[in-house]
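>> received
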Amino acid sequence: MELVCPAGNLTSLKAAVDAGADAVYIGFRDATNARNFEGLNFDHDSMAQGIAHAHARGRRVFLALNTYPRPEGWPTWQSAVDRAADLGVDALIAADIGVLDYASTRHPGLNLHLSVQGSATSYEALRFYHEQFGVRRAVLPRVLSMAQVRQVVEHSPVQIEVFGFGSLCVMVEGRCLLSSYAAGKSPNTHGVCSPAAAVQWVETSKGLETRLGGVLVDSVPKGANAGYPTLCKGRYQVDGQTCYAIEQPTSLNTLDLLPELTEAGVAAIKLEGRQRSPAYVRQVTQVWRAAIDSCLRDPEHYRPLQEWQQVLGRVSEGQQTTLGAYARTWQ
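>> returned
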């Protein structure tokens, strides 16, 4: 089972590789990348350095080119595919059918992975991507139960990668346009959820308000911690109550499920967090490297160590973790 870790910059890439990642996933500094935040990601030189650092240590580098092109911007996505091939990335993670078609036709030797942004939740969908574009691996959305993951893996013609830790996405993963409502940009089209230019922090007599594009997302008392404002994880008035109407801020943590994921035949565990710090990347990579190694040595007697859970708990969104959809026995 491969450990695939996030890297939002060169420092994070080196931290992940040196802490035990088998592969890292990165992105360009443009809208081709669903984590297109200011100050993050790679230009040509830093990407070349990162690839060299990883390859010298026997590790792999995947490029996330996982957004959906707008017609006027198509040349940007074509150029990104060409640059990725020239740089020698080990895999291109893509979602858009046009991007996959261009990559498979123009660069037939390029290893293609289907992004979680593709929202493929059935083996029939995976068979389509495999037959049409030669996709070799797919990242499953975080909406499937453990039973559903097993079924997909059993019948899939491609390797399956699943998220093991990190911030959760909601509803139909890969199709989030909520950010566009308030800020005019979304992860799917511009590569950014809640762009910093649209974020407002407003001090009031009652405490701190967080707003996105003028839309009130949350309000906390004075002295309390306020999370980064995203519409899906905001609090709203519903039926006379103020609550997290769509998704409560929390993080996925599947350390307990490692034996089941291994037995199911999952090829890789992916950690979320390209927008997080190098310190975060180093800590979660170290924990998951130790956990996967322990599970593979003796899956029958594997148990997550308390110190692992404590480290992950400290860096989790809202300092809370969940098994997410994996634990939905009714699915």
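>> The longest helix spans residues 278-297.
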